[in-house]
Amino acid sequence: MDSKELLNLIRFVAKAGVSEVKYKTKDFEINIKTPLAGSEAVSYVPQPVAYQAPAAAPVAAPAATATETKAESTSDDSKYITIKSPMIGTFYRKPSPDKDVFVNVGSEVKNDTVVCVIEAMKLFNQIEAEVSGKIVKILVDDASPVEYDQPLFLVDPS
């Protein structure tokens, strides 16, 4: 099951209003649970099965570097408000390839300012800042996949 199929399944479960779905194939098993039937918040817990495809060996050095970098930047970024992704999808800084970006570092934003779009299942969802301030950092590259609750922007509210 690829990521698009998984996303479609999660959306289907959320819209169907059921609280739990178990999906199992010969190579894959997944349980999708919603906290309340019909709500948008969906969590999923993949269950391992006996057969697993071989994977490349993980590289430990970059992960350690990322952790160290995050620890250093946390103290600097604590005074900023984070704009997070409300969904899984693909992050875009522009409304279309031939248009300008919504915001840049240094741009002033208000509660209703559109800062990006996230594509999910061929739908482009406009994401609003929901805070007032100045964009100080863009945390995601254009056309990158994003997860639910992943930080996208840092905003200085002062």
UniProtKB/TrEMBL annotation:
It comes from the Bacteria. The keyword Lipid metabolism applies. CDD domains: biotinyl_domain. The keyword Lipid biosynthesis applies. Residues 80-156 form the Lipoyl-binding domain. GO terms for molecular function: acetyl-CoA carboxylase activity. One of its GO terms (cellular component) is acetyl-CoA carboxylase complex. One of its GO terms (biological process) is fatty acid biosynthetic process. Pathway: Lipid metabolism; fatty acid biosynthesis. Keywords: Biotin, Fatty acid biosynthesis, Fatty acid metabolism, Lipid biosynthesis, Lipid metabolism. Gene3D superfamilies: 2.40.50.100. InterPro entries: AcCoA_biotinCC, Biotin_BS, Biotin_Carboxyl_Carrier/Decarb, Biotin_lipoyl, Single_hybrid_motif. This protein is a component of the acetyl coenzyme A carboxylase complex; first, biotin carboxylase catalyzes the carboxylation of the carrier protein and then the transcarboxylase transfers the carboxyl group to form malonyl-CoA. This is Biotin carboxyl carrier protein of acetyl-CoA carboxylase.
